[in-house]
Amino acid sequence: MTGYTQSFYWEKIKNTPSEKTSILKNFDKNKYQLFSLNLDNFKILLADVPSRKNIGSSPMVVVNFPDKKGNMERFQVSETSTLAPEIAIKYPNIKTYIEKLITLDHNRSSRTAENL
User: What share of the chain is helix, strand, coil (3-state, %, to 5)?
Assistant: First the structure.
């Protein structure tokens, strides 16, 4: 599933939430951008993510995440095992992923997305 654009799972929210109901009401609207994640489409993308052990022999999966300016940054994603084998068998839907930044922005650190 490599090659999907950000519109496959990210959508920029143009209208900000209601001032009265939003937890963002204390933030300056000019200093942040909101995105909505289509979790179903994101899970489809993650289904093709290789195990960390097989990363060299499997096709690379690239995932986009918005940065603080709203630009998409590209990350290579792989699945890593963090659960004990017996717990992983009992809960097969709990997955842990690691990302490796592949765009040229040295001000961004990678992060781990867990349990999607």
Answer: 20, 30, 50
